[in-house]
Design a protein that fits this description.
115 residues; de novo design (two linked rop proteins); 87% helix
Length: 115
């Protein structure tokens, strides 16, 4: 996948999470979970953009590791939201998150082999 497509997918994923958090029921738990997932999910795209501007292969790997961590954290929050709210859009968001995570891990592996 090319850089522009991945940037678009991470941005669209962030927008989908923004819409999800806006649709959560109004409660203290939802506020906390919403804040957490909003932070980690939107960080995926922001950190990927930073990785695209890396100064070296090692720098890019380090920045992609942050993308990996944020995607994994986002999956955790999606699981908690699903178990507490049972929203129908969660499985699709989890699938997209897993795909972004898998592509990030594959990119890290490829970069390490080139190094």
């Amino acid at each position: 996948m090319d850089e522009k497509t991945f940037k678009d997918r991470t941005k669209n994923f962030g927008l989908a999470i923004i819409r999800l958090t806006e649709s959560l029921p109004k409660s203290r738990t939802s506020d906390v979970l919403g804040r957490q997932i909003l932070r980690s999910a939107t960080s995926i795209g922001a950190n990927y953009r930073a990785a695209c501007r890396a100064k070296s292969t090692a720098d890019m790997i380090n920045k992609l590791k942050v993308v990996e961590e944020e995607a994994d954290e986002t999956l955790y929050w999606l699981e908690l939201i699903q178990e507490t709210s049972h929203l129908p859009e969660i499985p699709g968001l989890a699938k997209e998150n897993n795909e972004l995570l898998a592509m990030t891990v594959a990119s890290i592996k490829t970069l390490r082999l080139r190094k």
